[in-house]
Design a protein that fits this description.
CATH architecture of the largest domain: 6 Propeller
Number of helices: 19
Structural class: alpha+beta
CATH class of the largest domain: Mainly Beta
Largest sheet: 4 strands, mixed
Length: 739
Amino acid sequence: MSEIEQKIKDVQLAEELSKRYLSYAMSTIVSRSLPDVRDGLKPVHRRLMYAMRQLHLDPKAGFKKCARVVGDVIGKYHPHGDSAVYGAMARLAQDFSVRYPLVDGQGNFGNIDGDGPAAMRYTEARLTDFAMALMEGLNDNAVDFMDTYDGEESEPLVMPAAVPNLLCNGTSGIAVGMATNIPPHNLSEICDALLYLIENPQCEIEPLVKRIKGPDFPTGGVIVDKFSTILTSYTTGKGTFRIRAKWEKEDLGHGQYQIVVTEIPYMVQKAKLVEKIAELLINKKIPLLNDIRDESAQDVRIVLEPKSRTVDANLLMEHLFKQTDLESRFNMNMNVLDSDGVPRVMSIKEVLREYLNHRHNVLIRRTNFRLDKINYRLEILSGYLIAFLNLDRIIEIIRNEDEPKTVMMKEFSLTENQAEAILNMKLRSLRRLEESQIREEFDDLTNEKNGLESLLASEEKQWIAIAEEVKNTKEKFGKKTALGRRRTEFSEVAEMVEVPIEALIEKEPITIILSQKGWIRGLKGHSDLKGDFKFKDDDELAIAIHAQTTDKIVILDSSGKFFNISANDVPTGRGFGQPLRLMVDIANNDNVVTMFVFEPKASYLLASNIGRGFIVDENHIIAQTKNGRKIMNVADKEKATFCVKVNGDMVAVVGENRKLLVFKTEEIPTMARGHGVILQKYKDGGLSDIQFFNEADGFSFNRSGGIGNETNLLTWLGHRGQIGKLVPFGFPKNNKFFN
């Protein structure tokens, strides 16, 4: 057996795939997509910050090309694609994406319209003060370092994070099987919550949320959630925030006004928002709006022009909030890596506590580091003082002895570090003035050492020191600064406002025309229903009705389905309109039976060509979708033929056999759906026409020379399902009550 064959092992494919996918999943979760709760950074952001720091790109230094930064990052720390690294870097410089930018960009880094940044060879960058605070203490052994992927460099496992970056800037990411989405917050309010938690470690979540209030998005806007909803979100670590655009009403004089949107919801691209509103405007989905203009420069300024001065601004905005991204939702999911690197969803209190614990560890480590430095320096200074007290003897030893270091250590009980420092002293350091300065430095460092040792011995003093750090952070980046002021406001609006369609459409008369071939169009005003309408070749009028633009139009097809369209959606203007089948899904083998204006509280007799029918009320003829609503079940070769409004206590039905039957309306059952009952029996033919009337008035029909009216009903009076008697003298030959 060869050496290669000896290395071959038999494994189960499913088991091996499971192991490898789990390894990939954990790598994605821990090393790519989820932020660390302590510094709020993902590995790519942490490496970007560290690489820029190593390039000395602090806020007071000059800018350097982003290509240089990206090259260092992917070459030393993050072996991934340059476009991904540059994209992450560019986002950290966008003040509309990040609440407290970590990168100070020079050049085109994109805009709120959704345009991307310029190529990295054209843009320059350096760190911001906020980013420097995030890395404060890296030189003081504040955190652990690890080797980079090639082992040639080292990088921090986590930043010291003098600022609570996770909550201040938020983050989002999608891993394998889990995701995170944390909104940005106001630093001052986070600091207030931290100070309260330091003083009250066992506090409930509610007082913390009262101090944090809610997210503070870089693009502003208005949060329209109740406090109870916000509290629940922060308690569970999951929830939804409703954000609306901020707008104001500008008076133009003479009763005219316009609406100006000055802030839009977070992560909404302004250009796409304006495009969407314009599209709805063209399609007549926003009838109260006349025009939209984007007058934005550095600030957002979207101008909305109402249809008329009588339009209510609040009503118009409610409609826009409902149909566009002027209102959006932010789905919070505080899924982060805890201090042990374990991903889990945390409440706001757990996030704050983890941050404070991290700052406590940083304080201890930096204090010990400083203490070690002081002890080393005191050791050297002690040696200097011994040298000054025995200066002549020291000089003699150095001049005469072959191994002066060993002799000095033995004679004056010096340590190796002290002896080495004395030997490295310059001659000009032997002045009397230097001795006094050394004694002064020795005393100062001794006092500092005592203070640090006292700090390490008292946990109470440690938390006082951390509280002081939090206060300093609040002072530096708080609400008194232009960067720190709260941008997102809160509103009392808590529930969705339902806007009736009638309130959004200007009420105007309209004549709706349907042709035999199924083309529908509208004419402004109420035209003569028997007028000379123009149609395509080989087409003619089928149905014409009068309506208002605020009306709902009901359509019945021969399969027994009801469809609904808005009168305002019917195309108007020149031309022949559009096919009705583009508006509702009427099958190709079905035809329109009737079309009428919807009336509340009305009932209708639905009947088929074979004389079966039932009464249906208005609630059941409303269809919610284009597919319509099936109400009447029809058999083979049977079709729904009539939909007649019930407006009398009697009904007259006439068949194609010219037999007429009159009976009481109450004999017809009211149903929500079905096949119906027999209205009139026929040996040959079927149902020809239906008329409702009041018994005292009698039924009417066309007669040569005028309208005939029959009040003596005894001849035709009977019950539902009978055959009936021949029609009265002069009844129209087409068997219709009216032509």
